What does this fold into?
Amino acid sequence: MARTAEMAHHGTAGFTAKLKAGQEARDRQGEFTKGPAAAMKPRSAASAKAHATASATAKAKLAADRLKRQHLAAVKATPKPAPKARAPRPKTAAVAPPPARAGEMTDPRMWDTTTFGTAPMTDADKHSAMSVYFGSGYQYTNAHLRNGHKAGMTPASVKGVDRLAALIGTAEPTSHPVQLHRGVHGANAIFGRVGSLKGKTIRDDGFTSLTSKGDVAKMYEGSDAAHISVHVPPGVRMLKAQDMVTGTSPMSSGERAARNALHEYLLAPGSSFQVDDDRVDAAGNRQISITVVPS
It folds into this structure.
């Protein structure tokens, strides 16, 4: 209907001219793109041959490019093998202290289940013991005892040392073998180089503190520290340092509980020990095993 109206308005000649102009415009575009036969001149034989060669080359290049793209696509699509999982390196673990010997009691619960080490003590005995050893005075006391300078101590300290040593002498002796522990700093000064005292007997002129809890002794770590496993045979007297803090105040109760938690046993000055083993474990901690020599 639009075409009929246009023909009626402009006439047949005008409409024919529009169609011709549109066709010419399409023909010009075709010369740059499709190249219709009406706009192309016939080629010579040489030109046709060159055209054919160029066309073949172009097609070969297109084919090669297509194959290349297909190869790249295949490479991308091919899943890469997962990297081999490396086995984790084993962590160096600390070698445990020597196990308890056959028949030895080593459970920390021995503190609550045995009576060896107990001794009859008055509050005055406990106060004296706290002043010379179980309080801050232990460094002063042992420094003098181990250096052979007991004469340099105050009369009150000498009296307190003698009193504490006497208490240990009245303690109930061990009835069966026990393994206790001790941690020290300054192991090189005490035991010399690693293994140098193995098989020998040593003597401590000071009081020697021990514990039935291995984790207390393990707090002593470092390049010059040592964890000492102490084997105590039957018949050895040592004081069980239980309830050494007297008093009923909250502060006294808290201090008493903290001291009891150490599970401390005390050997008298002049105790001797056989050095059974002395080594450095895989974690670099020095492990020493000694046996108390009964007096």
